[in-house]
Amino acid sequence: MSLNDLGLIIGISLMYSAPLMYTALGGVMSENSGVVNIGLEGMMTIGAFVGTTVAYYSGNPWLGFLMGGLSGGVLALLHAIASVSFAADQIVSGIAINFLGPGLALFLSRVFFDGATMTAPIPLDRKMPRPFNYLFTKGSFLDLIFNQYATVYIAFLLVLVVWFILYKTKIGLRIRAVGEHPKAADTLGINVFKVKYLAVILSGVFAGFGGASMSIAVVSNFRATLISGQGFIALAAMIFGKWTPQGSMWACLLFGAAQGIVVYLGGTDVKVSSQILEMIPYVLTLIILVSFVGKATGPAANGIPYEKNEA
Amino acid sequence: MSKMKKILALLMIAVLTFAAVGCSGGDKTNDDKKPAEQTEEGNKTDGKQLKITMVTDVGGVNDQSFNQSAWEGLQKADKDLGTKSTYQESHQESDYVSNLETALDAENDLIWGIGFKLSKAVKAAAEENDDVKYAIVDFSYGDDTPDNAVGVVFKQEQPSFLVGYIAAMMSETGKVGFVGGMESEVITAFDYGYHAGVAYANKVADKDVKVLRQYAEAFDDPAKGKAIANSMYQQGADIVFHAAGGSGDGVIEAAKEQDKYVIGVDRDQHDLAPDNVITSAMKRVNVGVYNVVKDLKEGKFPGGTTVVYGLEEGAVDIAPTSDKHVPKEILDKVEEIKKLIIDGEIEVPFDEDSYEEYVKTLK
Q1: Which one of A4, A57, A222, B321 is separated from A113 by 20 to 30 angstroms, measured CA to CA?
Q2: Which chain B residue has the Cα nearest residue A265?
C-alpha cells in the first residue's frame, strides 16, 4: 500500500462523510431540544432535489446549496408543527416526512424536467467549487486528500459552529435545557415551543444541506435513488456520537473511512468477495459501538412531547 | 388537547395522501379515447383493438432508461399497430403485485413487467390467469415459462463487446475499467462481454490492455461508484465502462472531474457528460417490446418461450453519438465486428465459463 493509496482512502472517506455530517448535525440540533427526527431522510431528499434544480436553473451552486437547506427547513417546519404544537408522536410525523420528501421531489422533478424523474446534470464549472483544485499535483497524496468540494470543508466548519452554539451560547444552553427538562426550562421563563421550533427547523436546514451536498458536489444531478438510507445512517451516527456534534463527526468519518477501505480493497488483488467487503462498514461500526463507545444516553426528555397545561 | 390531536390526525392523512399522489403518476392512458365500445361481443373481427399495459420497475416511466424505452416501444405499437397502451408505475417493490392486479382488472390482453425485479410477481400472475398474456423484460424463466408468458432478454454482451473493443483501442495507458452494479446474470453479461471485447482488441491489434473490475454492490450508491472510478483512474485506467444504474452517475461524475473517458450503459448517456462519455452500450428495450406486441397482433405470440434480441434485430447497439469521440477508423472496424457477430463468426461470451472458452480460441 503506497502513500497514494492512503490518500485515496482518506479522500473517499471525506467525500462519503460530508453529506452524513450535515445530516447528523441536523439530528443533533433537533434531538438536543427533545424532538426525535427520523424525518432526516426525507429532508435530505428534498434538499438534494431543490439544491441541484436551483443550481441548474440559476447557474449558482451556492444559491442551490442554500435553497436546498431552506427546503429541508420547510419540511422540518411541518415536523415541528406536528410534533411540537400538536404534541403528535414524533416517530409518526417523521415517517410522514420520509414519505413526503421523496414524493414531493419526484413530483416537482416531473414538473421541472419534462416529466423525467431525473434532473439534468449541472456542468462541471457550475458545480460547487473545489478550493484546492490545481493547488497540488494531480493525483498526488495531498491532492487526493484535499482536492474536495467546498461542501466538505463547510461540513467541518459547521461541526465547530454547532458545537459552539450548543455549549458556549445562551441559546445552546436553552436548547439543551428544553431537551433535558422542559418543565424546568418553562418555569425559568424559557419559551419551550419557540426553542424547539428553532432547533427542529435548523435540523431540517442542515439535512437539506446534506442532501444538496450529494446532488451538487458528489454527483451533479438528482434521481429517485440518490438518497437511499443516508438519512438513517446519519441518525445512527448521531446516536453513535452520543448526541454531540463532535461525536457525530467522528462517527460519520469512521463510516466514510470504512467505505474508503472497502473501495480500496475491492480494487486490489486481494481475493475477497465484494459482498463480504460490503459488510465491513457495518461490522466495523458494530464492533466499535460495542467495545469502545459505551452507554449512549440521549437527552432525558427526548421524544416526549411537551404539553404546557398538563399537570 | 384531544381535539388538537384529531386535527393533527387529519393533517397527517392529508400529508400522506399528498405524498402518495406525488409518488404515483398513476394509470395514464396514451390518448383520451375510451375503449368502452370495444367490447368483445361488438368486435369479433381481427381488427379488435388490443389492450396492453406495462408495470414499471421502481424507476418509473420517465427513468431515462429501460422503463422509458419500453414505454416508447408501446407508444410506437399504438401508432403503427393500432393497439391501446397504458402504464402503471411502481414506486416500491411492494407495488408490483398490486399493479399487476390493477392491470388484470382493466382487462388488458397483454401485461408487461419491466425489469427482472418483477419476475416473480409476473410469473405468479401468469400462472393464476391463463387467459391473459404476460411478458417480462430482462428475465428468462427457461423451461418453467408459463404458456401464456414470454421472457424478453437482450444480448447485452454484444454491445459490451463492442465498447470493450473501442475502449481497448482508445486506451493510451493500457488499462481500462469496468464498474458493475450488483452481480447478476445481466450485469455479468456486460462484464464478460466487455472483457472479451478488450481481449479481442488485444489479439487483433496486438495490444496488451488490462481490465480493472470492481462491483459497487449497489445500483443506488453514486458516491460508491464515484469512489471506485476515482480509484481506477488513480490506478492508471483512462477509460471506464459502467453497468451500475444510479451508481453509474458517480462513475460519470468521476470522469468529468478527472477529465477522463467513460462509457455509458442502457441508453445513450452522452448528454450526462458530453466531453467524457465516448460511447454507450445501448439496450433498445423498445425494439424488443414492439416486436413482441407485433407478434401478438399477428397471432404469433411466442408464449412459453424466451425471446432473445441482439444486434441482428437492432435491439442492442453502441450509441449513435459515438462518432464525436471515437475515431472513424475504429468505428469502421466496429461495423465489421458487428457483421462478424451477426454472422456467428464471433460468439460473444456472457459469463465466466464462456469467457474462458472464448479466450482460448483467441490464442
Answers
A1: B321
A2: B214
